[in-house]
């Protein structure tokens, strides 16, 4: 039970920092509200250190938790950086307030950094996670899983769950130690940009090969007794059936802004109609 007795803030240990981010990381992937997204879990994470930063000061603990109970949404993998920065700033503010009664780390500065970095880190993280890591993971794990190889599940776990866990906790501690300078280095480094470009090209090549292997479409149409319609198309445009569907779907989504749900429904309806007409087997 907190009292109004003023005590010196405690220096957060690595274990306390680990538990702080573990709380946030664990619960933010289990549930989110529409109005606050992960804000309620960020507030819960800071509740684990509130008594360490402001021991015996119920009012300042309350202010701390209210500061993090609002909207919070970013990429929670690479966004561990922002969480670490916020913890470091709050620790500095608590120390300053105890020693001098004031701090250059104002609540306005903390809110500004939190709100200002959510978007950039979300864009940076989503690009890596969705365009590079997820694509490469699917490209490697799907053929293994389809062949009944247990390595498919292992690769899927490493490329999704384990990768996110490692990156989130690593960036959290780097953000806590390096502050805003680490964010600038992370998002503007030319080396990081080149590495992402190379990885992205490689992943897209793998996804192209995966599509060519798994996209199958056959008709029941015949041209002559010795040639089917599919054989004629393949002789004229090799790989047409494998290439055309992904390109058409890409065009519909990127150029015509068609919702992916409607594309899935349209594919199902079209296949049912063609099957009913006997065009496809």
In short:
This protein is mainly alpha-helical and 281 residues long.
Order of helices and strands: HHHHHHHHHEEHHH
- Would you identify the regions where 5 or more consecutive residues have pLDDT less than 50? none
How far is it from the N-terminal to the C-terminal residue, by CA?
A: 71 Å
The best one-word shape is elongated
Number of helices: 12
Percent of residues in helices:
over 70%
Mean pLDDT: 85
Query: Oligomer, anyone?
Result: single chain
- Class from secondary-structure proportions: mainly alpha
Note the beta-strand portion.
under 5%
Radius of gyration: 26 Å
How can the largest sheet be summarized? 2 strands, antiparallel
Strand line-up in the sheet with most strands: 1-2
Number of strands: 2
Keywords:
single chain; 281 residues; mainly alpha; 2% strand
Description:
The chain has 281 residues and is mainly alpha-helical. Helix content is 72%, strand content 2%. The protein has a two-stranded antiparallel ribbon with strand order 1-2. The longest helix is centred in the middle third of the chain and has 40 residues, at 107-146. The radius of gyration is 26 Å and the shape is elongated. The N and C termini lie far apart (71 Å).
């Amino acid at each position: 039970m907190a009292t109004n007795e003023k005590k010196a803030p405690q220096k957060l240990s690595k274990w306390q920092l680990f538990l702080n981010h573990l709380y946030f990381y664990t619960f933010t992937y289990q549930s989110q509200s529409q109005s606050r997204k992960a804000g309620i879990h960020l507030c819960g994470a800071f509740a684990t250190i509130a008594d360490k930063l402001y021991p015996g000061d119920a009012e300042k603990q309350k202010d701390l938790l209210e500061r993090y109970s609002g909207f919070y949404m970013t990429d929670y993998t690479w966004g561990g950086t922002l969480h670490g920065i916020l913890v470091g700033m709050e620790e500095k503010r608590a120390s300053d307030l105890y020693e001098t009664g004031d701090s250059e780390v104002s609540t306005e500065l903390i809110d500004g950094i939190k709100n200002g970095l959510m978007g950039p880190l979300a864009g940076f993280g989503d690009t890596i996670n969705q365009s590079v890591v997820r694509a490469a993971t699917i490209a490697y794990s799907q053929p293994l899983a389809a062949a009944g190889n247990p390595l498919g599940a292992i690769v899927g776990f490493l490329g999704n769950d384990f990768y996110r866990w490692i990156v989130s906790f690593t960036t959290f501690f780097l953000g806590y130690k390096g502050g805003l300078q680490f964010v600038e280095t992370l998002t503007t480094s030319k080396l990081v940009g080149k590495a992402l470009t190379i990885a992205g090209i490689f992943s897209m090549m793998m996804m192209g090969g995966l599509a060519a292997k798994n996209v199958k479409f056959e008709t029941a149409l015949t041209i002559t007794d010795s040639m089917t319609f599919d054989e004629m198309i393949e002789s004229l445009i090799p790989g047409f059936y494998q290439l055309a569907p992904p390109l058409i779907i890409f065009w519909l989504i990127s150029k015509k802004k068609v919702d992916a749900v409607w594309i899935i429904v349209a594919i199902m309806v079209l296949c049912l109609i063609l099957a009913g007409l006997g065009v496809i087997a």
